[in-house]
Amino acid sequence: MIRPKGNVRWIICALLFFATTINYIDRQIIGILKPTLEQELGWSEIDYGNIVFWFQAAYGLGLLACGPLIDRLGTRAGYAAAIGLWSSAAMLHAFVRTPFGFSGARFLLGLGEAANFPAAIKTVAEWFPRQERALAAGILNAGANVGAIATPIVVPLLTIYFGWEAAFLVTGMLGFVWLLAWLVFYRPLASHPRVSESERAYIDADAAAEPVVRVPWRRLFVQRPTWAFAIAKFLTDPVWYLFLFWLPDFLSKQYQLDLKTFGPPLIAVYLLADAGSIGGGWLSSALMKRGFSVNAARKIALLACALCVVPVLSATGTSNLLAAVAVLGLAAAAHQGWSSNLYAVVSDTVPRSSVASVMGIGGAAGAIGGMIMAQYVGHALESFGSYWPVFLWASSAYLVALGILHLLLPRIGVAEA
After folding, report:
1. Could you give the angle at which helices 321-349 and 116-127 cross, rounded to 10 degrees?
2. Where is the Major facilitator superfamily (MFS) profile domain (predicted)?
């Protein structure tokens, strides 16, 4: 395929990357501030678990609602409304003090943040040919890791010098900066004034093989691609939520790190995750360019990622911080590479007009898994004071998910209406 003149699609991808970065800063800040807020506001482990639970509940509800809404409104309007809501909710945290108040603020945050990945993956499906989608998904997904890297750098500094309230206010305002850039630059592919004809033709090269008919939302629930994606998200998303919301606490309990010292280990973990996100997306794209089928390329990449998570169990049994960071970073990298390819599977198997809806359904399943995780970890820590059972489950979740995905989708190919 001849390379086109123009790279507007990659500018769009950069905007998706930055939106995801902001999304994860606003999401992860509660985990960074957990030890501080527990001390200042008197929270218990169960209080914190409940706060995370209500974020996950809203995230799941939001994903079910926002998918069909974005498919109807389009990504420009849908994305704008979502980031406006979640940025406002992020700033609201600065004005509450009780677990109930934080639960309400996190609930609103979850509703808004739910739209990010359905809107982003729908945008990728509309702006990239099939052979570039996993790479584009990997790049935007890397924004999650950049957000996770930036948070332990920025939030402790803001908290130490200005108080934890300032951390929520400053990070919340970033979303409104992005919103302005999105409204100024983004237009649909067909009407974007900066897209050359050769780039538009390159992007639409797969369009003839991908039906544009809209699939009724209820009908999506009887299709195998929807169930394959939803089950995989249900089993594996909670592992990522474990890293986001409990990794600072794990480092604090296991290695006696605090707000001033757990930044470097967290940064190392998420730098590795960043490499995994892009590398995992690159792997399946590279295999396809070398003649592998879509089915083989996606599943080889997913298997490689699943195997790399297995050693994470050893993190709970070592007193060596460097060794723990290495296996945690490998697992985080594998999760992000896994996600990049799993998102690409949706665009491979679902019509473009229904991508956001299926992303929403799968994301809701992942949020339900995260809700179960939030309640389980909170009670496990209160009762046993150990992360070992949680990491045991995390180490095997991806292999189980891949086995189920293969049974439901023995051949990943052209999307069907």
Report:
1. 60
2. 12-413
Which amino acid makes up residue 144? A
What per-residue confidence (pLDDT) applies to 417?
45
Domain encompassing residue 77: 8-186+217-407
| CB 355, CB 347: distance < 8 Å | yes
According to DSSP, residue 188 is labeled: -
CB 166 within 8 A of CB 158: yes
59-90 per-residue burial string, b: 16 or more CB within 10 A, e: under 16: bbbbbbebbbbbbebbbbebbbbbbebbbbbb
Residue 212, in any domain of the structure:
no
Does 129 reside within a domain? yes
- Name the nearest CA neighbour of 386 among 315, 335, 322: 315
Does residue 124 contact residue 13 with C-beta atoms inside 8 Å? yes
With beta carbons less than 8 A apart as the criterion, state whether 267 and 153 touch.
yes
Angle between helices 45-73 and 355-383 (to 10 degrees): 180
Q: Which of 271, 276, 6 is nearest to 137 (CA)?
A: 276
Q: How far apart are CA 256 and CA 226, in angstroms?
A: 43
* 348-395 per-position pLDDT tens digit: 888 777 777 888 889 889 988 988 887 788 777 777 777 888 888 889
CB atoms within 10 A of CB 95: 11
Assign residue 221 the CATH number of its domain: 1.20.1250.20
Instruction: Give CA–CA dist 181/384, Å, rounded.
Output: 48
Task: Indicate the pTM of the whole model.
Answer: 0.72
Q: How many domains is the chain partitioned into structurally?
A: 1
C-alpha pair distances (Å), 12 with each of 9, 25, 111, 126, 166: 5, 20, 24, 11, 30
Q: Which is nearest to 38 in space by CA: 235, 313, 246?
A: 246
